[in-house]
User: What shape does this take?
Amino acid sequence: MNAAVDSKVFKANRLNAGLDPEHMPEHIAVIMDGNGRWAKQQGFMSRVRGHEVGVEALRRITTASAELGLNYLTVYAFSTENWNRPKAEVDALMNILMTALEKELPTLMGNNVRLCAIGNVETLPSKANKKLMSVIQATAKNDGLTLTLALSYGSQDEMVQAIRKIAQKVAEGTILPADINEAAVEQHLFTAGMPHPDLMIRTSGEQRISNYMLWQLAYAELYFTPVLWPDFDATGLYDAIAAFQKRERRFGQTTEQLTAE
Ligand code: FPP
Assistant: This one.
């Protein structure tokens, strides 16, 4: 499809979803929470079943985001703190990641999705890391939605690493302390070059940010839903975007200033 046809299709899809086609978030960040509770509610012995069904929710939301013509979707798939879960659950999550990467490549290609990752991906088991790199490479030329998996990711750790890199450059004399500004910090984050999320969705009723994109969420609208991640679907995504479209984003300015612009 060419860009003009794409944009007509996106507009129709946005209207069909009951959304204002001209006022879409460019970047949505998601905390996919509630897999364990979902498994328990459904009577499964293992929490892992929730993660497995969570992959299906991720496929639905990725496809729906691509169909709406969103530019960026970033999902919290595995935090630095998640390494502290029981080994059996960590191992299962790594296997789920590998299987999903293998199985979902055709869906990513069919939806023109480019896969990226943020976090300490080198700490993943080497087979998972290799698979991840191969799917990132295979989808690198896709120019529709960018789906970013936050894997072994923690925002405080991301900032510490950025500070360390900047301090190193100061020590080497390639950057002056006076030149350290927001843009310089941005360039040293995992998300360098990516616009900040406009909307952050967290499922499962928890109302926390849990060490997720603390710098990047500075002006994001936050949306919390009680729906557990494995049950989250396109309608839930449209509801979140509709709520976003009703918010007034002032970025520190007054309503009067915004309406005068
Ligand atoms: C939080 O639910 C979810 C996670 C820690 C993992 C998220 C993973 C997926 C949605 C599957 C897709 C995964 C990959 C790696 C592509 P929880 O286990 O904390 O649920 P709970 O709060 O109900 O216990």
Summary: Residues 32-37, 47, 51, 54-55, 58, 77-78, 82, 93, 96-97, 100, 149, 204, 229 surround farnesyl diphosphate (CB under 6 Å). Strands lie at 27-31, 72-79, 114-118, 146-153, 199-202, 221-224. The chain has one domain: 24-244.
